[in-house]
Design a protein that fits this description.
The complex is a heterodimer of chains A (about 290) and B (about 140). With about 290 residues, chain A is α/β, with parallel strands linked by helices. Chain A contains 8 helices and 6 strands; from the N terminus they run αααβαβαβαββαβα. Helix content of chain A is about 65%, strand content about 15%. In chain B, the strands form 2 sheets. Chain B has a 5-stranded mixed beta sheet with strand order 2-1-9-8-5, with no helix packed on it. Classes of the chains: A alpha/beta (about 290), B alpha+beta (about 140).
């Protein structure tokens, strides 16, 4: 009897775990959709900014702007590494941190000094354990939609370091959302600024007058495009995090189901054998009384 | 003329308007349909929108914006900004409290980063408060 009772309590505990993982799976799915919607929502902003920049680049304005200057030789690099605040997202953090470590080793081999901005609690913890790394800033618990001021702090740190010449290039290590089944840790350059040129610039932008000057407009647009890029990478990373968490939780739920099936079978068998044994004892007793 | 207010989090508003008054680096400018193509810089402040020609000044619609870029063409105005709030969405008492908090934060800021962040918040809430005030005046008989 004791074994059926033990099995019963195990089944109960697995069931409640399953409820939690199932709930987490659903939450992650809905959050992922939100992150993807936010990604789509920024499209009008970035395409307008890109159009202006394409036009200004054709005028040769971007060649003179400090944020577009490509250094002759890279001597120092700022890495922004995007991890999660919470675990249970499969190999998400492991992949990002592996790629990050690879970057660090490459830099060391090439004699490049580097600094790090860590985003997310997991990344913070990892980075703070590395003795050789200089941490420029650390952020955690960023909201799903990083509000202007928080985003600006990250972008400002990067741009300041770039402008003062402390840093030659700024790269971000994040998880790219390739499809709902593939997410890949990726490194992308943020500074010196680059952008995808628009194939066509509208007549209006081409003939427009720039006030106070093209240079100042460029300054304003470039800053915002860099900001938009960082925002985009953060959102993509979030979408990847949520889909990986969703899959991890789906697997956990499936495993819990399997476990419940196995345990139920074992419990039924134990109960059956207990009944059989009791019957045998009773009939044995009846036999003895004859 | 089409008026579009675009932020990183999406298109805030898109409507047919008669006149738009915009805060730029060189002061406020009023833009009507058929304006020469122009690209200029927006500073934090209030955008006022007149929907039809006959609208009086007390019928203007206000938006509080952060800094950004303004693109004017003869048929449209596109404003790319860091933040945008419609005057109708701003709760004056909350904004007042937020401004006070931001001011306190600016006073007690320990380093440059905090100071910068606090100053941005102060600017933002001051603009929002101004816009809320403009709307209240408009409502007065």
């Amino acid at each position: 009897m004791s074994s059926t009772r033990a099995l019963k309590s195990r089944i109960r505990s697995v069931k409640s775990t399953k409820q939690i993982t199932k709930a987490m799976q659903l939450v992650a799915a809905s959050k992922m959709r939100k992150a993807q919607d936010a990604e789509k929502a920024m499209e009008p902003y970035t395409s307008a900014a890109r159009e202006l920049l394409t036009h200004l680049a054709a005028q040769g304005e971007t060649d003179r702007h400090p944020l577009f200057q490509v250094p002759e030789k890279v001597r120092s690099r700022l890495l922004i590494v995007v991890g999660t605040d919470k675990g249970l997202a499969g190999a998400y953090d492991a992949n990002v941190l592996k790629l990050y470590t690879k970057q660090l080793m490459e830099d060391e081999a090439a004699g490049i000094k580097n600094q790090t901005i860590a985003i997310g609690r997991r990344a913070n913890r990892f980075v703070s354990r590395l003795k050789s790394v200089t941490v420029a800033a650390a952020y955690q618990d960023l909201p799903d939609d990083p509000s202007g001021t928080q985003l600006r702090a990250i972008v400002d740190t990067a741009i300041d370091a770039f402008n003062t010449g402390d840093i030659d290039v700024v790269d971000i290590v994040y998880t790219e959302f390739l499809s709902s089944v593939t997410q890949q840790a990726t490194v992308r350059r943020i500074l010196p600024a680059g952008f995808e040129k628009m194939a066509e610039v509208s007549e209006d932008v081409r003939t427009a007058e720039f006030e106070p000057s093209a240079e100042e407009v460029l300054e304003a647009v470039t800053y915002r495009l860099v900001e938009a890029q960082v925002y985009y990478y953060l959102l993509t990373a979030r979408a990847s995090e949520y889909i990986m968490r969703m899959l991890a939780m789906k697997n956990a739920t499936d495993n819990a189901n399997d476990l419940i099936d196995d345990l139920t079978l074992a419990m039924n068998k134990a109960r059956q054998s207990a009944i059989t044994q009791e019957l045998a004892e009773i009939s044995g007793g009846v036999e003895a009384m004859k | 003329m089409k008026f579009q207010l675009v932020t990183l989090t999406g298109t805030n508003t898109e409507q047919e308007v008669y006149e738009v008054i915009l805060p730029t680096a060189a002061g406020e400018i009023a833009v009507f349909g058929g304006h020469e193509p122009l690209v200029t810089i927006a500073v934090p402040g209030a955008i006022a929108v007149r929907h039809t020609k006959g609208d009086a000044d007390d019928r203007l619609e206000y938006f509080a914006i952060g800094g950004g870029v303004i693109e004017v063409t003869p048929e449209s105005i596109k404003v790319l900004v860091d933040s945008a709030d419609s005057a109708d969405d701003i709760v004056e008492s909350e904004t007042k409290a937020a401004l006070d908090r931001a001011l306190k934060m600016r006073e007690s800021a320990k380093d440059q980063v905090e100071l910068e962040k606090a100053s941005q918040l102060v600017d933002r809430h001051a603009v929002r408060l101004k816009v809320a005030d403009l709307r209240r005046r408009r409502r007065r008989p």
